[in-house]
Fold N-(5'-phosphoribosyl)anthranilate isomerase.
Amino acid sequence: MITNSLQKTKVKICGIKDLEIAKICKEEGADYIGFNFVSSSPRKIELSNAQKIVEYYKSEKNSPEIVLLFYQNSFEEIESITSVLDHDLVQWVWDDPLINRKKLLYKRQICSYRVQTQIHDQDLKDIEAEFLILDSYSKGVGGGTGETFNWELISKVKESFF
């Protein structure tokens, strides 16, 4: 979930792989849906399936915004997908060594920050993204595991980053 103190809680559903589930997400009022392009993920979507869902959403009113998720993808792969697939935001992982954030500056962004130790405002201040998601840390996985992290680890965060 993405929250902002000035707005209502937003719901983002990731791992959408087929049109029928995407239709249900729209009907149930999801604000964002995420297409996972992480090669190691069991929820990775084929580009052709993503294109079908995008075509459906673009023909409907009040559709969720489309988020493309990347982790350990080459910039060439990210550029290839984002150039042919209509989308609203790109999501990346803060500690992904392959991501070149400077090359993504022209895109609306969501940053996923994997929490594994105590974090403070200072740890988050340099993140340039429209939204920030705090996610659990799992070695070798960019996130989206469904596991929670110890919320005490973010108790020192006082700024409104979300």
